[in-house]
Design a protein that fits this description.
Number of helices: 4
Shape: globular
Structural class: alpha+beta
Number of domains: 1
Strand content: 35-45%
CATH class: Alpha Beta
Strand order of the largest sheet: 1-2-3-4-5-6-8-7
CATH topology: Aminopeptidase
Helix content: 10-25%
CATH architecture: 3-Layer(aba) Sandwich
Distance between the termini: 21 Å
Number of strands: 8
CATH superfamily: Gcn5-related N-acetyltransferase (GNAT)
Length: 174
Amino acid sequence: MKVQLSDGSQVNIRFLEPGDVDRLYEFFLKNIKEEDLLLFKDNVRDYYLVKSWCENIDHQKVIPVVAEAEDGRIIGVGSLHRRSYGWARQVGKIRVSICAWCRGRGLGRAIMERLIEIAREKGIKVIIAEVLSAQESALQTLRKSPFEEQAVIKEISRDHRGNPLDLHIFVLYL
């Protein structure tokens, strides 16, 4: 799916493929600041972890997408996490990460909109997004979106300097 960003550049948002290992690893290695690494739930600089994500894609559990620049570089990623059984099968969680230099151009919003579209296609009724207070750009994007901020868990974590971080929980009912 081709998307035009606010600066006029175009990106292709598509499903992650097994052949994306090196480009995805390069995205995490070169485009995520050291201080932002703590914001991830996994060690995204572990090559073998990234390789396992690409080689073991299971759309019943996680639907990963990448945003590809015109030169083929991966400049953003997103994922829709879901359960196939029980009450949580109608609930999806989304995660989005983009290059710092891409912020403010609409890339995060475009990835989020693609994940919402996929969630609708899969019959998901509720989408949750969790964002730490240090992720100011993501907070702004979600606050301008159809998501509702429904909870804030105070001082749930700490940043790389030891400063407390709050967890903001956003919900979108489809």
